[in-house]
Amino acid sequence: MSAENAVEAIDLSKKFGDFTAVDGVSFTIPKGEIFGLLGPNGAGKTTTIRMLCGLLAPTLGVGRVMGFDVAKQPEKVKSNLGYMSQKFSLYNDLTAIENLDFYARIYRLSGKTRSSRTEALIEMAGLKDHRTELTANLSGAWRQRLALACAIVHEPPMLFLDEPTAGVDPVSRREFWNLIYELAGRGVSVLATTHYMDEAEYCNEIGLMYQSRMILRDDPDSLKEKLPGTLLEIESDQPGRAIDLLKNIPGVVDVAFHGILLHVIVSDETLQGRLRQVLEENAITVQRIERVLPSLEDVFVGMVDAENRARLRTELKQGGEE
User: Fold this and answer.
1) Which of 79, 177, 266, 310 has the fewest CB atoms within 10 Å, i.e. the most exposed one?
2) What residues does each domain of the chain span?
3) Residues 234, 238, 244, 245: what is their CA dihedral angle, to the nearest 10 degrees?
4) DSSP class of residue 294?
5) pLDDT averaged over consecutive 10-residue blocks of the chain (322 residues)?
6) Is CATH 3.30.70.100 the classification given to domain 227-321?
7) Superfamily for 5-223?
């Protein structure tokens, strides 16, 4: 393993009987960087992170965290990371400071170190006014901050976040990511799973997972440049009817709702005139059609669509050979 990498995953796979939850996933995370595993529920993100935490043994492949093999040295791996799961591992009948103190004791922090560390984390998480409040009475956002503080109480060099902002409001999500940026600035490496496309923008690099496989990996800006085709945004008075018509036009790669607008991926930008013509011939008023920069959501939808088409072609080919 390179001394510059905090994590290395090499062809990691996990099977549960006949079901393949993770299929040959590979990536690296340089020290001090934030890596995002992006994808829908059931894509294999949580299983991947649990293998790298040493909680699940890989069926195939190799995983290393801070130089330790996840299959052969799981206890060494666990002592070098902080893990924040989808369901915060907090004790509702303890106060915020008592939860922190409990986790500090689990990690065997000595009395003086434990006291100074828990006080520093209360300050970092903005929990000063909630330190003696029962955890059960904290809002979701404050519980999230407390869970993060508990995960890093032993100052691990690696932090794993599994859907850390699920169910939290957008403002609190942004504040949470500001805390993660602060940790990364101190040299902490971060692996985060999410299905929020906007959160992926915070990552140095992103791995797009779909149906147990990683279908693409790159930094956010480079991923946007890899969108197959040109993205057009269409504003019309009947988007529901329009989407059905546009799907059948040759050269249209994908069509999806974007609020009350439509995002259409076309193989050639010159198709704009054809799209307008088809819609207007069907009594749909078009306010505008213009090229726009893709979001990560557009990229992901486009990549998933391309993946599904490739699989369908493979299945049809195999069916024809039988």
Assistant:
1) 310
2) 5-223, 227-321
3) -70
4) P
5) 86 96 96 92 91 94 95 92 83 94 92 91 92 92 92 94 82 88 93 85 92 92 84 95 94 89 91 95 96 85 76 72 62
6) yes
7) P-loop containing nucleotide triphosphate hydrolases (3.40.50.300)
- CA 120 from centroid of its chain's CA atoms: 28
pLDDT attached to residue 1 = 58
Q: What would the two tokens of residue 241 be?
A: 């009817």
Q: Are 214 and 207 in contact (CB under 8 A)?
A: yes
- Rounded-to-integer distance, Cα 204 and Cα 210, Å: 20
CA distance from start to end of the chain: 44
Q: Is 277 left (phi over 0), alpha (psi -120 to 50) or beta?
A: alpha
| Single-letter code of the amino acid located at 223 | L
Instruction: Give the model's pLDDT for residue 131.
Output: 93
Rounded Cα–Cα distance for residues 189 and 187 (Å): 6
b (16+ CB within 10 A) / e for 165-199: beebeeebbeebbebbeebbeeebbbbbbbbbbeb
pLDDT value for 48? 95
- Helix or strand (DSSP H, E) at 286: strand 286-291
Residue with tokens 């699989």: 311
Look at strands 189-194 and 34-38 and give their pairing: parallel
- Pair 213, 23: CB distance under 8 Å: yes
Distance CA 263, CA 295 (A): 10
